[in-house]
Amino acid sequence: MPPPAAELSPPLVLTFAASDPTGGAGIQADVLTLASMGCHPLSVITALTVQDTAGVESVLAIDADWVADQARALLEDVPVAAFKLGMMGSVEVIAAIAEIVSDYPDIPLVLDPVLASGRGDQLADEEMVSAMIELLLPQASIITPNSLEARRLALDEDNEDDQPSLSECARRLVMAGCEYVLITGTHEQTLQVVNVLYGPRGQLRADRWDRLPGSYHGSGCTLASAIAANLALGVDIEEAVREAQEFTWQALAAGFRPGMGQYIPDRLFWARSEDDPIGEEKP
Ligand code: PXL
Q1: Where is the Pyridoxamine kinase/Phosphomethylpyrimidine kinase domain (predicted)?
Q2: Which sign, positive or negative, has the C-alpha torsion 236, 241, 242, 248?
Q3: In order along the chain (283 residues), what is the average pLDDT of each group of 10 residues?
Q4: Which are the contacts of 107, defined by CB distance < 8 A and separation ≥ 6?
Q5: Taking CB atoms and a 6 Å cutoff, what residues make up the pocket around ligand 1?
Q6: What is the DSSP letter of 9?
């Protein structure tokens, strides 16, 4: 007799994110990463974007009720092993997602606080930043800001002289309620990229990576999804974070530039063979 369907199912990861038609970032990046890492992606679209590899032209947030309905339909049907949250598009959508995930406190939640694209397009306003801090940070197993996002999330707006170090930002974010904080160092003036994982008792690990040439679209989405995949597969947090960085670095190193703008990570780098590299004309 064939085993029941659930036994055949790979871990299911539910990503809430916005569509990026280029396939570089957003929900498309998440789906590629989760599938490449052996999970099955469930996807709830929070917003649509118009963009090419050079920049975001416009954003349309999906009605919050529609976001909630997409998620509830899935959650009532299938067992979710991890949540991953990316760009959410509006305060109403943030509130709807916060309410839904609060019904599942045992499911690991990876929050990628998308505030701007790598090219500087603003993807969240001040109201959304506050909603993320108040409603989602306390529910996050781990958040994965880059250093610019970490400063924006942690800065004390009432203190003009506030210039927190990255470890102080991490401390404040843990105080605000998330369990772990991974701050990525791509935007810092260091020879190598240094990504630091912090927990309730401060720094847990720092991983250093050779800085790759070029500008990549969707590296943060890839990293956060890879962490979610590892948590869904039962890997412990430190190893999940280390392996996810390795996966992301490999995907970036294998990246390609299909248009006039940024490089796109290749999340299927491991599936290419020497005889069939991308970029070569297919018959
Ligand atoms: O890389 C962050 C990001 C996330 N989600 C969507 C995006 C971007 C950056 O452009 O477009 C949909």
Answers
A1: 20-262
A2: positive
A3: 72 98 98 98 98 95 98 98 98 98 98 88 93 98 97 89 94 97 96 97 97 95 98 98 98 97 97 69 43
A4: 80, 81, 82, 83, 101
A5: 17-18, 20, 25-26, 49, 51, 56, 86-87, 114, 117-118, 218, 220-221
A6: P
Structural domains of the chain in order of their starting residue, each with its CATH number: 10-257 (3.40.1190.20)
Which one of 117, 215, 223 would you pick to mutate in the ligand 1 pocket, going by the greatest count of ligand atoms within 8 A of its CB?
A: 117
Choose among 194, 123, 29, 266: nearest CA to 132.
123
What's the residue count for the chain? 283
Q: Alpha helix locations (H) across the chain?
A: 5-8, 26-36, 64-75, 91-101, 126-131, 147-154, 166-175, 219-232, 237-253
Closest residue by Cα to atom 5, ligand 1, is 26
In the block, tokens 């109403």 appear at 92
Structure token pair of residue 204: 């847990």
Phi-psi region of 171 (alpha: psi -120 to 50; beta: other; left: phi over 0): alpha
Q: How far apart are CA 126 and CA 106, in angstroms?
A: 29
**Paired tokens of 19:** 């569509």
> What amino acid is encoded at 186 in this protein?
T
Q: How far apart are CA 195 and CA 206, in angstroms?
A: 6
